[in-house]
Specification:
The complex is a heterodimer of chains A (about 850) and B (about 250).
Chain A: H1 2-11, H2 13-51, E1 57-61, E2 64-67, E3 70-73, E4 76-77, H3 79-85, E5 90-96, E6 98-100, E7 102-103, E8 118-122, E9 137-142, E10 150-154, H4 155-160, E11 168-172, E12 176-187, E13 201-205, H5 207-215, E14 220-221, E15 223-228, H6 234-241, E16 249-253, H7 254-302, H8 304-312, H9 317-356, H10 371-398, H11 417-439, H12 444-495, H13 497-535, E17 540-543, H14 554-561, E18 566-579, E19 582-589, H15 591-597, E20 602-605, E21 614-618, H16 619-625, E22 632-636, E23 642-651, E24 660-663, H17 664-667, E25 678-683, H18 689-700, E26 707-710, H19 711-754, H20 756-764, H21 769-810, H22 819-845, H23 849-853
Parallel strand pairs in A: 8-13, 10-12, 19-24, 21-23
Antiparallel strand pairs in A: 1-15, 1-16, 2-3, 4-14, 5-15, 6-8, 7-11, 9-12, 10-13, 11-12, 17-25, 17-26, 18-19, 18-22, 18-25, 20-23, 21-24, 22-23
Chain B: E1 11-22, E2 29-40, E3 44-48, H1 55-62, E4 70-75, E5 78-79, H2 85-95, E6 96-99, H3 111-121, H4 128-138, H5 153-166, E7 171-175, H6 183-198, E8 204-207, H7 211-214, E9 219-224, E10 227-233, H8 237-245
Helix pairs in contact in B: 3-5, 4-5, 5-6
Classes of the chains: A alpha+beta (about 850), B alpha/beta (about 250).
């Protein structure tokens, strides 16, 4: 049996290849995702371990507030370093000052700030007792900073910013500091040298300048770096150091510090990166499952006679089942193995692209292909294929021996009533759940998600039932426009509803996800627009560019307020605090001016009258915590101080400031050097937008020229991030669509193989080759459009449901249908349908008429 | 009224020194050996011969489905050998009608659509009165909207005959048209073909091995080993059977 299966596979290799392509692509994508994630993890691990080499202990303030990626860490008194230095067992210490410093390029524009961090610190110039210095950086060119206006910068930033040793430029800390670049540094030395740490820029000041600019307090430091005497274990030293350290401090070994840095990267970036790619790998694999299932169903149907003959000759059901199962297993294993190989290649390509794009992983770090990755991918690939083949295999086993004797119609797909009822029930349930989610705030997102899943499954179940009608309707214009070739294409698409639905559902699933994303994106952008319309009452916004660059210097808001053209310049700042025991990303506002440029739809109390120890929260937040006006809540800051705030205002629109707002007067003493996130500006009466903008830019030029946006630009900028994210998603989803399109090509090939005689007859009675190609092409387009329209409708509906659910749960979100995007997708898929038909059509047209119609 | 084309002495289709060789070297098979023959218009000609005699090859080459190794094949005055695939397709759809033994119809099209298929492919206007006459002749008026799967074997062949007649082709080629039918249904089909020639003035060339079928023709050509070996006018089934027995087959 096994041998028979293998040889039969070999004879039908062409069709088998079609079936396997979907598995190969899906598995390759999964493997590439896993490998890239592992490689980056290993890469960062090595990086941090290297950068911490030479340091045995890190002593720092134990208080820190983390929220939404913002970390604010307390500082230490400078005297701690001196006390530690004279302790027994300590070979050497260095005081380290760390902060944010964004370098401006030779033309005065900020470098980076949208991705990797912009690091600033004091330049620690040493080699250490064991020959390994505290400092992971090495001077490649120039010298260390001596004067307070001298800095060294990383080679990556120097290249991007066209800065050379001796150039004057500005560093935003966020206060603009005029400096001379006296040295260019690399991370690591010699052959291992890389431009910087994973794309993060670095500015090294003198110790005094770093304290002044990065911490704003002359006697404070961030971390004490300790090197133990040879033979002294770090853990033992840590224990013995305890008496000299201030109570709020914490001490980490190099390993702990590396792990912490890895976790930070993991939490913020790698986890997201991996989850993001994995989501697409899963979509691709799901689409692949549909494709394989369909191909296998057709293959089994085409072998009905063969299977029946086997049964008639005495093969048991189990043996027929085994024959199909073995075939599936062989295909799955071979395809998965090829997929793993292709995935490794894909990962290498992607890594090369990322390196070229300046993600800055060192070239020395190769691909990390783990056994677990290969095993996982093989299991997933084989599992998915087998799952997809189960139903066709059982169908093959159920074929009655008598079928061998009858002239069986190939793949008669009767559409059962059971299917109709079950499909309708699931779909109706799913749609009902989505509708419910849009109306009730309770667990709206979870309900909507489940509803979406059920609707999708229901649609797949209903597919064969609606296929005939749908392809008939969609094919009608084709038949009308393309004459007999069009009529035949339409009838061919209609003739086997189960096959048509199977082919289309892969595409439906893929395009539904695309439409979901597009709807989400369009709705997000619409929400931003609405936010600006409804809640921003000013004319211009000066905003920091990106989330990792330097914030805005606080002086800038004051300078703007003094301009004649400006009526109000109200700064807002990110204020990570511990509120009622949990880390919260609050926003600080200047109440008197803020209330005049922003309308948050305050329902209770007043923002304008917010006292120094006053708190304002969104109504959703207040409900969640059970707070009312007058509730007193403890608040704590990263510098270790604590206070109490009283809830004084509740608002509805959480968009500009998020869920929690506090008074700038309360925040300012604790803010360190965190600066402002944005300044909301209202122009004086009679000042035109253009004049106002010019006046503002004359001031902001001194602060690294942050973006000055009018209302539309402000809304658009938020939209741009959405567009970038969507662009990436579309690229990745394109893969799923590609798999689905390959599925169409494969189905067509199989159908054409079945219709050999029919095609021969058509050619004999006068169908030209181009008419025949046209028939195949239009059948492909009808199938593609069927799947796509189903997918786009479904995806848009589900997008609507999720957006509405978000709006009922979170109080944000306006629905917008991305009509243009949907139309473009439909157009692209039609073209893809034409492309998918090229090969099958060519093969059909090449048919030898005589062989096709030979009666013997 | 239906006007029948004048019966001419001009051949509807003919072959000149037609030679067809399959394979080469040791496995060479000479299916046709310098055959010259002309099928007169307005006549029903049967082509007979034992298996491997070349009768099917002759028909395929005359119908433009296969190409000759040497010699010429004509439909009317058109020499087929010099035509491109596109031109051959046009000749097939405009000047030739086909009736095969089985698989004659497109399963997705109705009987009516199958009948008009060649004209639809050519985007040609129907000759309504002629089409009606053809449909009535084969007695399919009440079956026009049925799919082939809803028709009996005999009815399917009648649709095929109607399709071949519908475009008023120069010549209709029939390849064992009754081979898959019982004798009653087969007799009906042959009667329709007969009246298509007698009453509608069509030209039919039919390949068959059935002497009863051949008896419906005006004349019979006998082929053996790639050569025309005999010719019989106004054949009867008995005479044809006797002649076939002479082949020793």
């Amino acid at each position: 049996m096994f041998h028979a299966t293998l040889s039969s596979l070999w004879r039908r290799k062409r069709r088998v290849i079609g079936a396997s392509t979907a598995v190969v692509i899906g598995v390759a994508f999964l493997v590439a995702t896993l490998i890239l994630g592992d490689s980056m993890r290993t890469g960062f691990d090595t990086f941090f371990a290297d950068s911490n080499k030479g340091v045995d202990l890190f002593i720092r303030n134990g208080t820190k507030v983390t929220s939404d990626g913002y970390v604010q860490q307390g500082t230490l008194d400078g005297s701690v370093a001196d006390a530690v230095a004279s302790w027994p067992g300590v070979a050497r210490v260095a005081a380290s000052v760390e902060g944010t410093a964004q370098i401006l390029d030779i033309d005065g524009r900020p470098i980076g700030g949208d991705g990797p961090p912009t690091l600033g610190g004091n330049w620690i110039d040493d080699t250490g007792v064991d020959g390994i210095g505290f400092n992971g950086y090495a001077i490649a060119e120039g010298r260390a900073p001596i004067a307070d206006d001298e800095v060294v910068i990383d080679r990556g930033s120097a290249e991007i910013g066209k800065l050379h040793v001796g150039d004057r430029t500005t560093v935003l800390t966020p206060q603009p500091v005029e400096v001379t670049v006296v040295g260019i540094v690399t991370f690591g030395d010699g052959a291992d040298a890389s431009d910087n740490i994973g794309g993060a820029s670095f500015t090294g000041f003198t110790f005094a300048a770093a304290q002044r600019y990065l911490l704003g307090e002359p006697d404070r430091i961030s971390t004490v770096l300790v090197e133990a005497e040879p033979g002294v274990a770090p853990d033992a030293l840590r224990a013995s150091l305890a008496p000299v350290l201030p109570p709020a401090s914490e001490t980490l070994t190099a390993a702990e510090r590396t792990a912490e840095e890895n976790d930070a990267i993991g939490a913020d970036f790698l986890d997201f990166f991996e989850a993001f790619l994995l989501a697409f790998a899963i979509v691709a694999l799901l689409v692949a499952t549909f494709s394989i299932h369909n191909t296998f169903s057709i293959l089994v149907a085409q072998r009905t006679r063969e299977s029946a003959l086997l049964r008639a000759l005495g093969a048991s059901r189990g043996q027929v089942l085994a024959a199909v199962a073995i075939e599936a297993l062989v295909i799955a294993t071979v395809a998965s193995a090829i997929g793993v190989g292709a995935g490794i290649g894909l990962a290498a390509t992607l890594k090369a692209l990322m390196d070229a794009a300046g993600f800055g992983l060192p070239a020395a770090i190769g691909l990390d292909v783990q056994t677990a990755t290969v095993v996982t991918a093989m299991i997933v690939g084989v599992g998915v294929s087998l799952a997809a083949c189960i139903a066709p295999a059982f169908k093959a086993a159920r074929i009655a021996p008598l079928a061998a004797l009858r002239d069986v119609n190939i793949d008669r797909s009767a559409t059962s009533k059971v299917r109709a009822v079950v499909g309708l029930l699931i779909t109706a349930g799913g749609i009902a759940a989505v509708f419910t989610a849009t109306r009730t705030p309770h667990d709206a997102l979870a309900t909507a998600g489940l509803g979406a899943l059920a609707t999708m499954i229901g649609a797949v179940v209903l597919g064969p039932i609606v296929a005939t009608l749908a392809t008939a309707v969609l094919g009608a214009p084709v038949a009308a426009l393309r004459g007999q070739a069009g009529t035949l294409a339409r009838r061919n698409a209609m003739r086997n509803p189960r096959r048509s639905a199977g082919t289309a559902s892969a595409l439906m699933f893929g395009t539904a996800v695309v439409a979901l994303f597009a709807t989400f994106g369009a709705s997000l952008k619409a929400s931003f627009d609405e936010l600006v319309d409804d809640s921003f009452a000013g004319d211009l916004v000066v905003a920091r560019s990106g989330s990792t660059g330097a914030p805005l210097d606080q002086q800038m808001a004051s300078a703007l307020a003094e301009l004649d053209a400006v009526a109000i310049a109200s700064p807002i700042a990110d204020a990570p605090v511990v509120l009622g025991g949990s880390d919260e990303s609050a926003v600080s506002i200047v109440p008197a001016t803020f209330a005049r440029v922003a309308d948050l739809d305050v329902t209770q109390g007043s923002l304008a009258a917010l006292s120094t120890n006053g708190l304002a929260v969104s109504s959703t937040y207040a409900d969640e915590h059970g707070w009312q006006i007058g509730t007193v809540v403890p608040i704590a800051f990263a510098d270790g101080t604590a206070a109490e705030v009283t809830l004084e205002a509740i608002y509805e629109t959480a968009n500009i400031v998020g869920s929690v707002a506090i008074n700038d007067a309360l925040w300012d003493p604790h803010q360190g050097r965190s600066g402002d996130a944005a300044v909301l500006v209202a122009l004086a009466d009679g000042v035109s937008l253009r004049d106002g903008k010019a006046a503002i830019e004359s001031v902001t030029a001194r602060y690294g020229s942050p973006n000055v946006q009018d209302r539309q630009e402000f809304a658009d900028e938020n939209g741009q991030d959405v567009d970038e994210m969507l662009g990436l998603s579309y690229g990745l989803l394109g893969l799923a669509i590609l798999i689905a399109i390959l599925g169409i090509a494969n189905t067509l090939s199989l159908s054409i193989h079945e219709r050999t005689r029919e095609l021969g007859l058509l050619r004999a009675v006068g169908q030209s080759r181009s008419q025949l190609r046209s028939t195949v092409r239009w059948e492909s387009v009808i199938l593609a459009v069927f799947g796509t329209i189903g997918g786009l409708t479904l995806g848009t509906f589900l997008g609507w449901g999720l957006v509405r659910a978000m709006s009922s749960q979170e109080g944000i979100g306006t629905f917008a249908a991305p009509t243009t995007t949907l139309a473009v997708i439909l157009g692209l898929v039609m073209v893809a349908g034409v492309v998918a038909a090229i090969r099958p059509a060519r093969r059909a047209a090449k048919l030898d008429i005589l062989q096709a119609i030979a009666t013997s | 009224m239906i006007t029948t084309p004048p019966r001419t002495r001009v051949a509807a289709t003919r072959a000149e020194l037609a030679t067809k060789i399959y394979g080469r070297g040791g496995t060479e098979v000479r299916a046709l050996d310098q055959v010259s023959v002309a099928m007169p218009g307005g006549q029903f000609t049967a082509v007979m011969g034992p298996s491997g005699s070349g009768k099917s090859t002759l028909m395929h080459c005359l119908a433009g489905l296969d190409t000759l190794t040497s010699g010429h094949a004509y439909i009317g005055d058109t020499e087929l050998g010099s035509l491109s695939d596109r031109e051959l397709t046009r000749v097939r759809r405009e000047q030739i009608g086909f009736i095969f033994q089985a698989y004659n119809l497109i399963p997705t099209l109705t009987a009516k659509e199958n009948i008009t298929l060649p004209m639809d492919l050519a985007r040609r206007k129907y000759d309504r009165p002629w089409l009606d006459a053809v449909i009535d002749t084969v007695g399919l008026r009440d079956r026009l909207q049925h799919r082939p799967s809803e028709l009996s074997g005999g009815q399917q062949q009648r649709v095929a005959v109607a399709r071949a007649l519908a475009g008023r082709p120069q010549v209709i080629f029939a390849d064992e048209p009754t081979g898959n039918l019982d004798s009653r249904a087969g007799g009906e089909i042959l009667q329709f073909m007969r009246s298509a020639v007698t009453d509608l003035g069509q030209t039919i060339v039919m390949v068959t091995h059935d002497p009863v079928a051949a008896a419906y023709a005006d004349s019979v050509l006998f082929l053996a080993d790639g050569n025309i070996v005999d010719h019989m006018s106004r054949p009867s089934a008995t005479a044809v059977l006797d002649r076939m027995k002479a082949f020793g087959g």
